[in-house]
Amino acid sequence: MLLTDLGRKARELLAAVSPPSEAAGPDLSIFLDRVRFVERGLAIPVKVLIVPLLAYLLFFSNWIADPLPPRDVALQALRNFFVLYFALSVGGGLMVWGMDEVSPRLLSRVVYTVAILDAAMLGGITLVSGGFDSLLFWVFLGLIVRNAAVIAYSDVQITVNLLISVIYVVAGILDIALERAEIAGVRSVGLGEVARETDDLPPNLMVEALLLRVLLLLLMTACSYGVQVLLDRQRQKESEAREFAIKQEQLEAAGRLAAEIAHQLKNPLGIINNAAFNLQRTVKEGKTITQQISIIREEVDRSDRIITELMGYAKLAEGRVERLAIPQLLDEALQEVFPVAAKFETRVTHHYDAALPVLLGAKVHFMEIFRNLLTNAREAMEGRGALHIEAKSGPDFSVEVSVADTGPGIPPENREQIFEPYFTTKAKGSGLGLAIVKHNAEIYGGRVAVTSELGKGTRFTVTLPARSLFRLRK
Description:
Elements: H1 2-17, H2 28-59, H3 71-97, H4 104-128, H5 137-150, H6 154-188, H7 203-282, H8 287-313, E1 321-324, H9 326-337, E2 345-352, E3 359-362, H10 363-380, E4 384-394, E5 398-405, H11 433-442, E6 447-453, E7 457-465
Parallel strand pairs: 2-4
Antiparallel strand pairs: 1-3, 4-5, 5-7, 6-7
Helix pairs in contact: 2-3, 3-4, 4-5, 4-6, 5-6, 5-7, 6-7, 7-8, 9-10, 10-11
């Protein structure tokens, strides 16, 4: 019981600190705006000022006068690295400056590489300027904030910022190692004891100061990540609220339009039907005329049934936009189509991806999609066989739901017609099930695909955009 409670609390804590669920990562426009403001607007101008100063300090000044071995080797290695850093920084800066001509994937890698290079260069300067005692520690904190502001992907951001902390610690440890090597070299030539001015601090206080600095770096990493999660969640709520309003308004408008069209068409059909009935009663003697009038009435009745079906087929006004989880919708549809009490001889299996994006739309529309697909599979297998349902994330914030059965399959000549209204090969079928699936998917910008092999079964795959505006069919 205790382990169960701890597991539940751990999951709740993980959900609280997790970024918003977006299958393909953050919005591309958000990332580009961050790069444009932080890197191009702030980082590049600052580096234009600082890099020449670093070049002067490393190559032309007496900033470090006559360093003892092996610190002189470290200084020379830093100078060599600076040349590489300068070349890569110029190249990366040019790509960021011309970011509108660079693909977002390449731009993101350039930004991450530049962030790591900046941290490595700062670590090298820290190594030759005092190690753990260097005032450049505060610049490490600034790099963490800068990375949090520009890197929109949480896993990459945390990795890069933790790497910055590691670079600081490594620079400090190397500085201590170099100092001990210097002392050992001085003693070997008999020049006496050498101590740093800051070594008058007790060892325990030095360790505490180091731990506090490392903890401060880690705390800054965590806080920056937390602020980003909060901002991303707020942005997601605002985006969903706007999309809710737009979709709800469009659903209601489409529903009103469909109802008005159906109402306007049913009135003249009723008049025609009544007129044909009276005409038939008046001319009972004429068999040919009576037969033709009967045909007219039959066609009018058929048209009336079609419009009546369409009124239910396009009940868009009844839809209310919600945040909908795919697994819950599929499980609910399964319970309706395969109730336990019915004892169907169908083996049902399913697999749902762990991080599926939510759908924004009317529940009734998506339930009709899944219910009709499952019903179609059940009837094709006559209540027996195996059914596999799969839901996974697709490209561009989409969800792919597939329903595969082991039924007789669909003949090739019928595959182009199965989505047409009133086309059916079943004795008691209405011919509207798959037409509704296609219709409801397309009004959300989705699509339906079918693959089938005679004697082996059929697979229907519905792709539904998780972030797309409702669209009316032409």
